[in-house]
Amino acid sequence: MARGKSSIGKTLVWGLLILVVMGFGAFGTVNFSGGLRGIGSVGDTEISVNDYSRALQNEMRAFEAQTGQPMTLEQAQQLGIDRQVLAQVVTNAALDDEAARIGLSVGDDQVAEALGQVNAFQGPDGKFSRESYSYALRNAGLTEAEFEASLRNESARNLLNSAIYSGTTLPDTYVDTLLGWAGETRDFTWARLSADALETGLPVATDEELQAWYDAHLEQFTLPETKVITYAWITPDMIVDSVELDEATLRAAYEERSAEFNLPERRLVERLVFGNEAEAQQAMDRITSGEIGFEGLVEERGLQLADTDLGDVTKGELGEAGDGVYALDTGEVAGPLPSNLGPALYRVNAILHAQETPFEEAVPSLRDELALDRARRVIEGMAQSLDDELAGGATLEELASDTEMELGTIAWNEQSDETIAGYDAFREAAQAVTEEDYPSISDLGDGGVFALRLDEIRPPAPRPFEEVRDEVAAGWDKDKTTEMLVAQAEDLAQQIAGGASFVDLGLEPMQEKTLTRDAQISDLPGGLLEAAFEMQPGETRALPGDGAALIMQLDAVTPVDRESDASKQLEGLLQDRAASSVAQDLFRAFVTDIQERAGVNIDQQAVNAVHTNFR
């Protein structure tokens, strides 16, 4: 059965993907021998080894493109990529089998037209070139018959897909129901009853009650999987005290940073520039007379004080205005005085006196900085030899014994942040390490280095009751407080339902207006919005909070305004999403039906053979 040109156009997508595969020839086209052709079948349609192999290669390359990291088959299997690819090729085979059963295909003319539109198959004149076509397919390990058959199969699959997706329509009642559900809003009033509102004291929990609470909330006290890790590390701080610095080195550093230790007198200055001397003088006269202040002049010019700020400047940096500005006290204004932009008024905001730090006073800070820097260089110089010793078979214990590295052990999990676990580099290494890994030197990021070894993996396990007894008691107290407050809140809710107001009962009411089911209100306690959409207008309810109780009354239910622009946009969105969801369900049901009728057979040994060629 042949169909029109519209369906074959979609097969170009598949064809271009094949060409992408060709462009990654370095990855290798799997070459099978011994007569292995398929990894299974759906009905009478074989799932070829090459189809599965290329699809798996494509998915792995796509992952590599996203992460920028090479992917091994083992990693792909851990992520389930191989199973996803197998499911996809089985689905394709099912559609191919169904298309063959009902005689669905496209003609040679449409295939030829599609091939002519692929740039990689065109010659210098822009027309289809048999030589380019054959060359490209040879590089991909495909024959012309295989490729053209794949085009026909993909086209037939597209026709089946289109028949399902384009033919899916939903009744207006369905969309109207969704719109009414999503667009309806609620108005409600609520108040919080906190622990200080308890009318009776909190009872003291018995040991049995605490044990029962612990047992009921065991997940809160369960440690995640923990890795027992031995590590050796060295940081600049560990060896800084052993670094020796002579006076000549310190004096050279002091002289090099003289400007830092010996600062001249400076002023914090603001400058307002004018177009000419007369304007500047007129502005200065207004300040002198008290008519306006410096800030007022700045505002009149449409500027902000930040636009006039020169920061801290020396007398020499002010040029010809230096003497005049340096004669001012804090808060005083002088001018007109010259500037590189024209006559200006200057205001002094602070006087910074000269600071001179003698060599003897600068030595402590210089010594600390220079010693740390030298310690970093020492560690950098020894890192390679440390790594070589580990590669030669030295243990972490031997390394710590023979060098200044320190040995330690940590029970590490994702919550650990003490000592070396505070370093991102260590946490990343601890997350990735396996029992098969050998220790090697890695950077900590602050000039230090470390190496680690995984000794043991402990499965998730609860912390002992006695160890967490105080936490259990706090949790029990909070739950008991909530329970007692909810009992009080239920009585208050009944009074409100009987006509009393929140204020009459000493509560602080808060009102929420026109909230939809998916409203995001940051300070709204959990459970209120959900309850509002379960209640009827005028109904009151008491709800548990976190160590508190909540009292709410539903004030109004507002149906969706179907004529508003927002509702019309929401209607279109819901219609598209619902149709797409139903179409996907129909497609999955269709494929499942094909597979059940035709039968699916997977040769796991053949699949394993494909995987072997990836290693």
From TrEMBL:
Pfam families associated with the record: Rotamase_2 (PF13145), SurA_N_3 (PF13624)
Domain PpiC: 246-362
Keyword Transmembrane helix (UniProt): yes
Keywords: Cell membrane, Chaperone, Isomerase, Membrane, Transmembrane, Transmembrane helix
GO function term, MF aspect, one: peptidyl-prolyl cis-trans isomerase activity
UniProt KW Nucleotidyltransferase keyword: no
GO CC terms: plasma membrane
Annotated TM spans: 12-32
Subcellular location: Cell membrane
Membrane topology according to the record: Single-pass type II membrane protein
Stated family: Belongs to the PpiD chaperone family.
The protein, known as: Peptidylprolyl isomerase
Taxonomic lineage from the root: Bacteria, Pseudomonadati, Pseudomonadota, Alphaproteobacteria, Rhodobacterales
